[in-house]
């Protein structure tokens, strides 16, 4: 049961994930959660750091797609300035949103990775879909009200994960030669 929440990698911040390393892994599409993963939940404009990372992904030939449980209106408002494609109402931890994005971009499970800040939605959805995942620390220490419930339960899950998998730690980037294994 605990393995459902085990991320493939853990990285300090989304923008620390190296497009070069993703390319080496054969990744063609990065799926990312929206709030507190790609942008601060209360700042739909993003940062210069985000724009730099997006440009590096594009230069590496890697598509970036937002997969969010939020409504279409909320996601569209948040990503329109960033000109990013998205799947709204993804129903994570179910696989609907991930499967839709994979179908739209015609990629296999080995060509996609899910990046998110929540074990109970993003990482679980990736594992349910059979794809690699990257858990990142939330951009902000605060969350929207509906995420605070997940964070409460995540503390217990993370404690159990670290106990079972003592090497789990946030790193500066992914290590393509080392994955967390179940």
Automatic annotation (TrEMBL):
Signal peptide: none
A GO CC term attached to the entry: cytoplasm
Pfam families: HAD_2 (PF13419)
InterPro entries according to UniProt: HAD-like_sf (IPR036412), HAD-SF_hydro_IIIA (IPR006549), HAD_2 (IPR041492), HAD_sf (IPR023214), PGPP1/Gep4 (IPR010021)
Matching CDD domains: HAD_BsYqeG-like
Keyword field: Hydrolase
A GO MF term: phosphatidylglycerophosphatase activity
Gene3D superfamilies linked: HAD superfamily/HAD-like
Protein name: HAD superfamily hydrolase
Native source organism of the sequence: Secundilactobacillus kimchicus JCM 15530
């Amino acid at each position: 049961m605990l393995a459902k929440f085990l991320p493939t990698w853990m990285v300090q911040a989304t923008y620390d994930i190296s497009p070069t390393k993703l390319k080496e892994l054969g990744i063609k599409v990065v799926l990312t959660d929206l709030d507190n993963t790609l942008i601060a939940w209360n700042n739909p404009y993003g940062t210069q750091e985000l724009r730099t990372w997006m440009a590096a992904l594009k230069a590496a030939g890697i598509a970036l797609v937002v997969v969010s449980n939020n409504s279409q209106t909320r996601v569209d408002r948040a990503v329109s300035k960033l000109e990013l494609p998205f799947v709204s109402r993804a129903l994570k931890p179910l696989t609907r949103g991930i499967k839709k994005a994979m179908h739209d971009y015609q990629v296999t499970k080995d060509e996609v990775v899910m990046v998110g800040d929540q074990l109970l939605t993003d990482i679980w959805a990736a594992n349910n879909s059979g794809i690699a995942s990257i858990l990142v620390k939330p951009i902000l220490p605060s969350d929207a009200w509906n995420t605070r419930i997940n964070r409460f339960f995540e503390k217990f899950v993370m404690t159990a994960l670290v106990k079972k998998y003592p090497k789990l730690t946030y790193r500066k980037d992914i290590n393509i030669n080392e994955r967390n294994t179940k």
